[in-house]
Amino acid sequence: NPSFKIAIIPGDGIGKEVIPEGLRVLDAAAKRFDIRLEYKHIAWASCDYYAQTGKMMPDDWKQQLQGCDAIYFGAVGWPATVPDHVSLWGSLLKFRREFDQYVNLRPVRLFEGVPCPLANRKPGDIDFYVVRENTEGEYTAIGGIMYEGTERELVLQQSAFSRRGTDRILKYAFELAQSRTRRRLTVATKSNGIAISMPWWDSRADNMAKSYPDVAVDKQHIDILAARFVLQPDRFDVVVASNLFGDILSDLGPACTGTMGLAPSANLNPERIFPSLFEPVHGSAPDIYGKNIANPIAMIWSGALMLDFLGQRAAHDAILDAIKQVLADGPRTPDLGGNARTADIGIAIAAAV
Amino acid sequence: NPSFKIAIIPGDGIGKEVIPEGLRVLDAAAKRFDIRLEYKHIAWASCDYYAQTGKMMPDDWKQQLQGCDAIYFGAVGWPATVPDHVSLWGSLLKFRREFDQYVNLRPVRLFEGVPCPLANRKPGDIDFYVVRENTEGEYTAIGGIMYEGTERELVLQQSAFSRRGTDRILKYAFELAQSRTRRRLTVATKSNGIAISMPWWDSRADNMAKSYPDVAVDKQHIDILAARFVLQPDRFDVVVASNLFGDILSDLGPACTGTMGLAPSANLNPERIFPSLFEPVHGSAPDIYGKNIANPIAMIWSGALMLDFLGQRAAHDAILDAIKQVLADGPRTPDLGGNARTADIGIAIAAAV
Ligand SMILES: CC(C)[C@H](C(=O)O)[C@@H](O)C(=O)O
Ligand SMILES: CC(C)[C@H](C(=O)O)[C@@H](O)C(=O)O
């Protein structure tokens, strides 16, 4: 039987409320599909841990996680006690970079039972993936301030793109597109404005396209691409983007389907040299923590992505079908207009699995 | 009587079709409000001119325009003969930079008679401005490629923000917010990811806010901000953003109101040391050029913004009311489901003025 070791990191706020429901559904899927899941429960990478120790993670965090196949991650952040840049750069962003999770994968899908902010869109119309580069590009702390504190102040900020980093994310996206029915890939760019990195990014995409003649490729500038997420979301299949553009598009996509609170995300090290990390897109939501009304579907869907990544496609599909069924028929938490509690959703989805 | 000298640059494609309608409406407003408009018609800054001369503009373009109060600009670009980066960097982007048009102002508004891609939004619900920095920031050609053409290739791209450039766009936005009823300003940022320039940008916004205690300020990361354009567009009043973020938001905003084809844009040098430039957001649209079906409303609305900038608020309001009336009652060009021709719209709006 397939067997996997999973690190469980609830983190902060509603992360602690949705993780148990995620595990409930994982257990149901494991039972049905005969998969052995061994959990390693971890209390650090949380602001509570920070309050006790002055840091987000112990020094040997890498060693503690190194044997795991994946990290199942709730949410980090408690701005009342720890500033976000400390909690996030001290945990989530460290995982992404030090475990070389260079693919950030986010599905965008319109479901029955989820109110859509776009007019005249039906379930099934929208079904695509945003593939975001997750380790380099525009997210850097390289640069500086000249004439600091004076009228002449000048701030320089560097972006850095490597061929290795760019080619591997493009390759991942081309292969994902190739595996799908429509085989369409949209490449986000801004080569008409950002004059060094983006024309080069375009040329890497053109080069990679030669190896995938069966994928229809389309480069679009980020301004018009963002507009088309609203105007023609049904036209997308796989969208690949740099770190910053992917960050924007992978919030905008779920916004267009009304699934910001339901959206999962996978931070992948496809070579499996390091553990990959699966997390809901929503954060720790201090405003609703403690009421047990958080919707656990993003956490549960993230678990499905984890099983898919671990080769358990049938288990992934079963969880996704169960999610669809509960979204359509209820129960529903307050964010979707019902009055179910967090555990009710987990129980219903586990039962459907 | 107020008197202004306006340079008229039709440019390419439908730019040449919508300019006459823009002038028709400007003339009607000038007549009604007793404004003297002197036009200087210019055939360069077009791909036709490029075909004849090998450049987009004559060497003395600055001198030729220097006496003008404003530039009324159709659209540039004819990719079949001149690549976009040549035609745009050789004209539009040169104007923005060399005439120090550091404010790019774009209104976002939902009108009766314009189908809205968002569900359940009514005319009047959405009414805000995007204020975009237009001369620096992420749009640079500074940087380079190391180990070019090898596996180790590394691309560095610089962004550059000056205190002068940042403070003046923030000041413009704060003053615009202060002049409006709701007095709300949203500042686009990404200080949790782009670690040098964006925290500094935030600090400039905080500093500027001290001088405008009556403006409610709100900093939002670009990812969630883009999502909120779709989810809560009624909450925005004035949004200020860097060059890149403003580029994205000022396409996304009009996409959300279904007005991408109707949206105007003002490139302002508020001190009036140089002429400001007023242009539709849509491009030269080679696919529909020659059919006389282009909708001239973006061009006409741009003319209204021009009169407003020149101090003729009443004339601006009259044109905008006339636009609203024609959008609600017709005639309509094919993009809005009618079969009127370009001139029909100009004639109807001019009559309503
Ligand atoms: C054509 C392009 C360089 C330009 C920009 O990005 O500024 C356009 O998108 C705009 O917004 O006017
Ligand atoms: C919290 C922030 C740094 C992060 C990012 O920009 O990567 C978040 O927006 C995300 O998308 O996971």
UniProtKB/TrEMBL annotation, chains A, B:
Residues of the Isopropylmalate dehydrogenase-like domain: 5-349
Q: What EC number(s) are associated with this protein in UniProt?
A: 1.1.1.83
PROSITE patterns named in the record: IDH_IMDH
Task: Report whether Ribosomal protein shows up as a keyword of the record.
Answer: no
Q: Answer yes or no on keyword NAD.
A: yes
Q: Which reaction does it catalyse?
A: (R)-malate + NAD(+) = pyruvate + CO2 + NADH
Q: Which UniProt keywords apply?
A: Manganese, Metal-binding, NAD, Oxidoreductase
The similarity annotation says: Belongs to the isocitrate and isopropylmalate dehydrogenases family.
Q: What is this protein's record name?
A: D-malate dehydrogenase (decarboxylating)
